[in-house]
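Before going further, learn to read the protein records used in this course. The integers have meaning only within a learned vocabulary of local backbone shapes. The record below shows the convention in full.
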Amino acid sequence: MAGSPVLLLLLALGLCCPGIWGHSYQMTAKFRDHSLTHPRVGHQLELECQGAKEDSGVFWIRLDKDGILHFIVFISSLSRTTFERNEKSSTRFGARKDGRSYRLVVNSFSAQDEGNYFCLMNSNQMLYFSSGQPAFFPVTTTAAPTTAAATTQSGITRKDPCLNTSDSETSKKSEPNFFCNIFIWVPLAGACLLLLLALIVTIILCQQTRRRRCRCKR
């Protein structure tokens, strides 16, 4: 019966047109523990349906996040239960009648049990729907990163464009080094060039004096 379009149609009619299905008779589905606001992972969750007539059984259904209806159990007026596939018992759920209250127990609540829970009753060819009881885990929010490096969802870190102190400092440090290098290497290069020219001139003069001496001896 999971995701049955007939159940979906009945639920839509019951929610949108309550006058057709007996608006004067009200049923409520709620947590049995009135202090509970959200279910807890792996813990037992108990719901109760109140306002049902003693001589009529009750259906429990769940509307999941995708809008699909799931039949859970039918509890008869004699507290007999019928689960999915006409099973008499279930490992995931427990159900019973206690006076005029029809109770549903989720044995170990997990993500697949999240949704809106409804109870409905068929009496004298009239359908009566309860209000939905949401049963979802609390939404967790994460604070925005305040450091200079923000971590993305893929695990890659990137620098904050608003914080440029490190880049500006390194650029300021590199500029003096560059000018210092110019002032040091340019004079050295000039001195080396002058020494090279002096050496060339000296060699030329020495060769000329040798030639003159040789001619004078002859």
About this structure: The longest helix spans residues 165-217.
